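Recall the central idea of this unit: under ordinary conditions, the amino acid sequence of a chain determines the structure it adopts. In this exercise we apply that idea directly, starting from the sequence alone.
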Amino acid sequence: METEQQQIESTNSTSAEATVALPGAGNQNLPMLPPANQSNEQWRQIGRQVSDFLEQLPVYLGSFFNQYKQPLLTLAVILSAIVALKVVLAILGAINGIPLLSPTFELIGIGYTTWFVSRYLLKASTRQELTYEIRDLQRQILGKEYSET
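Accordingly, the structure predicted from this sequence is:
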């Protein structure tokens, strides 16, 4: 083992490019590092390239957004809908955790469903009234007439 260390030390110390890794008392067993070969001009060139890229970044991002505007907006709407759905589900989960609110809301839902069925779905004349109301709402929202099908 001592012979290997002596060989390493002799190899490192005979090299003309080798320098001490760390100044101090215990660097006899530390490997030697070669001196830095890159000049300051190379670092300046890299700095200029990075600076030019950062300078052109707003132009690149603007052209990217203009080129892919519709897919990006679609993706944003989808992600927003997913986040909104998660928030609504979390709120409903919190409400269901309150002891008396969950059965109260179930009773309200059953009562409203019963009223809706009895008001609009039992008689043909009221079903026709509901159909007219739905078409009127569609016309107001979409701004065009739908033919009866």
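Residues 107 and 146 are 37 Å apart (CA to CA).
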